[in-house]
Amino acid sequence: MRPDPSVPETVRLARAGLSRLLEPGDLPGTLLPAVLGPVAALEIAAGRRPVGAAEHAAYTRAAAEAGLPPRQASLGRALERWAGRAAALEPAADLARVRACGGWFAVPEDPDWPAALADLGAAAPLGLWGRGDRALLGFPASRAVSVVGARDCSHYGRRVALDLAGALAARGWTVVSGGAYGIDEAAHGAALATGTARPPTVSVMAGGVDRFYPRGNAQLLARVAESGLLLSEIAPGGTPGRFRFLQRNRLIAALSSGTVVVEARWRSGALSTAHHADALSRPVGAVPGGVQTGTSAGCHRLVREGTAVLVTDVDEVLELLQPFGAAPAPEPEAPAADVDGLHEPDRRLLDALPLRARSRPERLARVAGLSAREVLGGLRRLEERGLAEGTGEGWRRR
Amino acid sequence: MRPDPSVPETVRLARAGLSRLLEPGDLPGTLLPAVLGPVAALEIAAGRRPVGAAEHAAYTRAAAEAGLPPRQASLGRALERWAGRAAALEPAADLARVRACGGWFAVPEDPDWPAALADLGAAAPLGLWGRGDRALLGFPASRAVSVVGARDCSHYGRRVALDLAGALAARGWTVVSGGAYGIDEAAHGAALATGTARPPTVSVMAGGVDRFYPRGNAQLLARVAESGLLLSEIAPGGTPGRFRFLQRNRLIAALSSGTVVVEARWRSGALSTAHHADALSRPVGAVPGGVQTGTSAGCHRLVREGTAVLVTDVDEVLELLQPFGAAPAPEPEAPAADVDGLHEPDRRLLDALPLRARSRPERLARVAGLSAREVLGGLRRLEERGLAEGTGEGWRRR
């Protein structure tokens, strides 16, 4: 889908400007376009004209409704904050820059704007810079799952991420992740390899999409941009910083119907994605691991704190994502025990049967503590199941 | 504590006889002594005299109160069941046999009978055959923890069992387990090595205490009998069978204030101990592990089904056992991140600071999207924390 031609270029330019002016999560900066429209919002935010009295009243009302504390809502303080970047705004150049690398800039006014982002409310992004087939942007969050975890993952974590993301992708789920080393990398890679959804995988970056970051993943991210989507709310050239990583995580959480943390230490950025998903009432799964190395301590913490459900395989993840839409996870295949379905007296009789020697019913009754009737009936039932065999000399286990 | 001399020898003999006559969990057989006293109960159960009309009425009332279905409650059927073993009863010989190996037979009438067993109600054992210092029998369940798990445990499971049981024992907890290979073995061994409680460890057997079973654990069990306690409700000479293992697990659960499953496959006897503990409203913990080998699938199942709380170390186990009596588990020690305690604008400022080159405040304001006031205040705060350093040429990270 191409951007809607009915969206005026002024709107796209204004939002591109706002996207460079404002840091993610700057709520006054998000409220302003929501209340006054993006064009007026940029004029005011960039200090090109003063805010009108009616505009200020409308903004103040919206800020109060959004629950912003007065200090944080103050437009005066916000304008001071924005002034430093206002002079250097060149939204047309930014748009040209993203187009130069085959990308685009989507705005909430576009018909293919991901509907799931609305759940972020005032924290929704001002726009999305993207690379990849624009027709894929409207992918449904209801068939997308976020798979995230530690950068410095263990061999075990990588293995689980490959298996889990690969299995989800093979079943038609879009795998959303953050493009980082470790678990993210494995999740994207597995989805590219086995994915059947369009897009098979989506990588949400913490910096501009014009650069592949981290550089070691450049090849992987180029493949994501080719077959899937690379998205960011940061304008081209923007560098990723810790704060932007944390904000970015809310987009990963919002663009999917649930988040699985594959491996994470006690302190891990992946936990922030889990908490964002939880705050959005999207289910969170966490994969357990060994307790002695600490590499899964963050996953265990999420389970202990009740944020996440413990998940061990793709079926359990699907049960989490579609609690009403899918069949419950099947029990793992385990060889049925030979005592399944036997009632207690028969189990005791089976316990009492010798393996090699043979035992007469009278003796079995004494050993098992059963009546003669129970023993005779039980031997017949065990024989039918092929668990006992009797001759004139007595009975034994088979 | 020696057995109370005021308990008549006839009572001990009668209970010893009942203990050989009846299989664990045979509810009519447990109700009979509860209603009529052990001496009359043995006379009737062994078929030495018929049950009186008043006795039968009292028994029937008790069976109804205990919720036994009529078929299961039928005394006639029970007598048929018991007849096979009745002829061979030699309780005096059984008592001599246990004494010959330095053991004893405790009965509920003894003042040192473990009070916690009362929680089993009608399923309480008829008596306990034991080895070890009889003075230790009254150990408090409130300072005992059951540590159980798979026989065919992994290297990981054994390691965790050693660590966990060792740490619990070192903090004065009595470690209760089942004496089996694998996790049980590790739990007993660690408790013997580091335990400070008396007894440091208690092993509840599924067969008679006169024999060490399994034979490969004979040396370990001999040490348990020497420093701790070996207990069983099965009369001397009794062989362990699958049914008896499952029944035995209710005693492990009842004799402690909580149960920890260290490692268990999807189907594992250790899960039955967990379910018994849960049924007794005693907390259950389960240690997670890798998801790819299936060796911890039973633990994960307990957590997913809500039976167990996920636990990863001794502090979390203690928090489970003493939810009100102990301090909550401390957060694992992790190096404090340098951004801890910084508010958002300062974190963004820190992200914006170059590592090698130097940056002037005006530029930092633009890069971080902050006002001049925020940048100057922030640089001062970062400098105080040793995170930034400034000269006439500008600022950088330290």
From TrEMBL, chains A, B:
An annotated GO BP: DNA-mediated transformation
Species per Swiss-Prot/TrEMBL record: Kocuria flava
Domain Smf/DprA SLOG: 105-321
Highest taxon of source: Bacteria
PANTHER family attached to this UniProt entry: PROTEIN SMF
Family: Belongs to the DprA/Smf family.
Protein name per UniProt: DNA processing protein DprA
